[in-house]
Amino acid sequence: MTINHGILSQPGEGDSYSVAGDVTTFKATSEQTDGKYALFEVVVAPQLGPPPHIHSREDEAFYIQEGSIEFYLDEQIVVATPGTFLHSPKGQLHSFKNIGSVPAKMLIWATPGGLEKFFAQVGTKVENSSVPPLPITQETIDRILATAPEYGITIVLPEADNSP
Q1: pLDDT of 119 above 70
Q2: Which residue in 115, 107, 69 sits closest to 90, CA to CA?
Q3: HEC profile for the chain?
Q4: 76, 36 in Cβ contact below 8 A?
Q5: Which one of 4, 28, 49, 80 has the lowest number of neighbouring Cβ atoms within 10 Å?
Q6: Neighbouring-strand partners of residue 64
Q7: What is d(CA 59, CA 57) in angstroms, rounded to the nearest whole number?
Q8: Is the peptide bond between 112 and the residue preceding it cis, with omega within 30 degrees of 0?
Q9: pTM
Q10: What band does 132 get if pLDDT is binned at 50, 70 and 90?
Q11: How far apart are the C-alpha atoms of 148 and 154, rounded to whole Å?
């Protein structure tokens, strides 16, 4: 909801999308912030997270609310628990994984805004953030890989092991 000169997003409000093991809820979109940023609440299923990737257009900042999330930032590994804040500037190779046995929750800021359009395009709209993420299918993976370049995202897949 937009209020006079600001944004108000109550608990449970915002469009939610299941995106490859996460449920991402838009708390502030680029349309609401004049393109300055987007803010998401992300629930990450246990033992899941995105593959290593690089954003060429936006910085991302992460604030952990619940659970334990292992971040890979270039060559560094950081275990983030509630209250931890991390910033990943554009151009940095990064990924994260919920290393716990229960869902983890965090806020993600993307500056400038626009990344939410990627999530809406590759994800599946769900009722709210409390629903479990949909299963990851090959179709989902293919859609993410095909769409990522449109948003300046490079996904770094592991090299195939072709050894005998």
Answers
A1: yes
A2: 115
A3: CEECCEECCCCCCCCEEEECCEEEEEEECCCCCCCCCEEEEEEECCCCCCCCEEECCCEEEEEEEECCEEEEECCEEEEECCCCEEEECCCCCEEEEECCCCCEEEEEEEECCCHHHHHHHHCEEECCCCCCCCCCCHHHHHHHHHHHHHHCEEECCCCCCCCC
A4: no
A5: 4
A6: 106
A7: 7
A8: yes
A9: 0.88
A10: confident
A11: 7
Record the tokens describing residue 96, joined without a space.
């994260």
What are the tens digits of pLDDT across the range 27-54? 999 999 999 999 999 999 999 999 899 9
Whole-Å CA distances, 133 to 14, 42, 68, 104, 162:
16, 11, 18, 12, 33
